[in-house]
Specification:
About 70% of the residues lie in helices and about 0% in strands. The N and C termini lie far apart (about 45 Å). It has helices at about 5-10, 15-30, 35-45, 50-60, 65-80, 85-95, 100-115, 120-135, 140-150, 160-170, 175-190, 195-215. α6 (about 85-95) runs antiparallel to α7 (about 100-115). It has 12 helices and no strands. With about 230 residues, it is an all-alpha fold. The protein has a domain at about 110-228.
């Protein structure tokens, strides 16, 4: 744990926000990517200086720090401190996603499902959502289930929809929780006994995979919640 973290959280020293900021600034200037990222967060969320936030996020992102890469993507998606540009947002999301960042993977899935900066492509949306979902991202799990339930570009699949929606209820679908519960009850009326058995088996198999790969997913600046 670095000095700025010790003073920020009161670990081994008396908590002191001012000293924490001073050491954070020093660490960021010395090139530590996590410090640069946290300094960006400070300017972004507390000082409300979006350009300085982007400056420090960029410093960290250029060193390959995924949370910073994700945040730059959000800035371009929202046009905060930069000119709004969905395609540039996707470039930064993909950098973070390829390093395993579940929030970036989720946002790439949302982009392909909504057609933000790319043509609508449900198969690609599912592919990116699944990468996040296997790490325990409940809303990504919900969105996969919703896509299979609705059909369209992908074939409607009640067995897959049931399994993914049930996972989202277990792992936390957030604002989509009530939708997931309603959808599950509706799907049950459409499944035969053998299909229901298969759906439960699929759920258990996926849950085992998730438990092996689950990670703590940090809160983010922005993640679109898709309710189909």
């Amino acid at each position: 744990m670095r000095l700025w973290e010790m003073y920020l959280y009161g670990q081994g020293v008396q908590k002191d926000n001012q000293l924490s900021y001073q050491y954070l600034q020093l660490a960021a200037e010395q090139g530590h990517p996590k410090a640069q990222y946290e300094l960006g967060n400070l300017y972004d969320l507390h000082v409300q200086d979006k350009k300085k936030a982007l400056f420090w996020y960029t410093k960290a992102a250029k060193q390959g720090y995924p949370p910073a890469q994700y945040n730059i993507g959000v800035k371009y998606a929202k046009g905060e401190g930069v000119e709004q540009n969905d395609k540039t947002a996707l470039i930064w999301y993909e950098k973070a996603a390829n390093k395993g960042d579940a929030n970036a993977q989720y946002n790439l899935g949302a982009a392909h499902q909504l057609g933000q900066g790319v043509p609508i492509n449900s198969e690609l949306a599912i592919s990116w959502f699944r990468k996040a979902a296997i790490q325990g991202h409940g809303i990504a799990q919900y969105n996969i289930g919703a896509i299979y339930l609705r059909g369209g570009q992908v074939q409607k699949d009640y067995v897959a929809a049931y399994a993914w929606l049930k996972l989202s209820i277990h792992y936390g679908a957030g604002p989509a929780l009530s939708y997931a519960k309603q959808a599950i009850e509706s799907i049950k009326t459409k499944l035969s006994v053998s299909q229901y058995t298969k759906a439960e088996e699929h759920y258990r198999t996926l849950r085992k995979e998730i438990e092996k790969n689950k990670k703590e997913i940090p809160k983010t600046l922005d993640s679109p919640n898709l309710h189909f």
